[in-house]
Amino acid sequence: MLALLTLPDERLRQISQPVIDFNPQLQALLTDLETSMLAGPGGVGIAAPQLGMLQRVIVVDCTLALRSCKNHGRLLMVNPEIIERDGEVLGREGCLSVPEWVGTVPRSRRITVRYQDAQGQVHKISSKAFEARVIQHEIDHLDGILFIDRVISTHDLVRRMSL
Predict the structure, then answer these.
(1) Cα separation of 18 and 101, whole Å?
(2) What's the gap between Cα 118 and its chain centre?
(3) What span, in angstroms and rounded, lies between the C-alpha atoms of 85 and 57?
(4) CA-CA to 135 of 20 to 30 Å: which in 76, 91, 123, 160?
């Protein structure tokens, strides 16, 4: 498990590069991401930049969430790209890299995402509800964007209760 970056670490603001080589180093990164996500309190998603690796890789697993919603299970997404969006909904978000804060963030209600798996095969999924929110949040990390950049108002940011 690698150390999780937290604000104010500037590496969280950098743009990640696409993955070109689907090699053992990518497999190791995916393992590190999953291990780090599971070690965090309530983590349902993590992006490579949160571990200081500026590659376009995320892991999402909404089956770990306390809330019940239909989802795709564990997703290991390489070079994810949102290709369709529909609707908008407000929801509370927190982040492993901004551990003390939560805020209300607008996100697309439904998304379609194209991505590659760990072997480089291309997939396309449609997602909605909480899973769509998590995927959008993690893809933002790949572009150096944090949820605090998208809150509806800075007055809406509140300190998270101790976990």
Answers:
(1) 29
(2) 17
(3) 20
(4) 160
Identify the DSSP state of 64: G
79 φψ region: left (φ > 0), alpha (ψ -120 to 50), beta (else): left
Superfamily of domain 10-159: Peptide deformylase (3.90.45.10)
> pTM to 2 decimals?
0.93
Gap between the Cα atoms of 55 and 37, Å rounded: 17
pLDDT tens profile 12-54: 999 999 999 999 999 999 999 999 998 877 789 999 999 999 9
Residue positions annotated with a catalytic role:
138
Give the residue from 50, 53, 75, 71 showing the smallest Cα distance to 141.
50
Half-sphere exposure of 83 (CA within 13 A, CB side): 10
Give the strand pairing for 89-95 and 122-128: unpaired
